[in-house]
Design goal:
The chain is mostly helical. The chain contains one helix and no strands. The chain starts with a helix and ends with a helix.
Length: about 60
């Protein structure tokens, strides 16, 4: 009977594993997108700082 109860829970366990795997994949993609956004913002700030520095040196 223990085997029957395990096999009866198997579809629920598979569904839980798929849900967790999907959430992990989504979290990974969001983190990756966030890294690119932060990197882009850092590059923009660096370019702005360089432009201000160049303008100050010209005066």
């Amino acid at each position: 009977m223990a085997t029957l109860s395990m096999s009866a829970n198997l579809p629920e366990e598979e569904e839980s594993v798929k849900t967790v795997a999907s959430l992990l994949a989504l979290s990974f993609l969001l983190a990756l997108a966030g890294c690119n956004t932060v990197r882009g913002a850092g590059q923009d700030i660096q370019k702005a700082g360089s432009a201000i520095e160049d303008a100050a040196q010209k005066k």
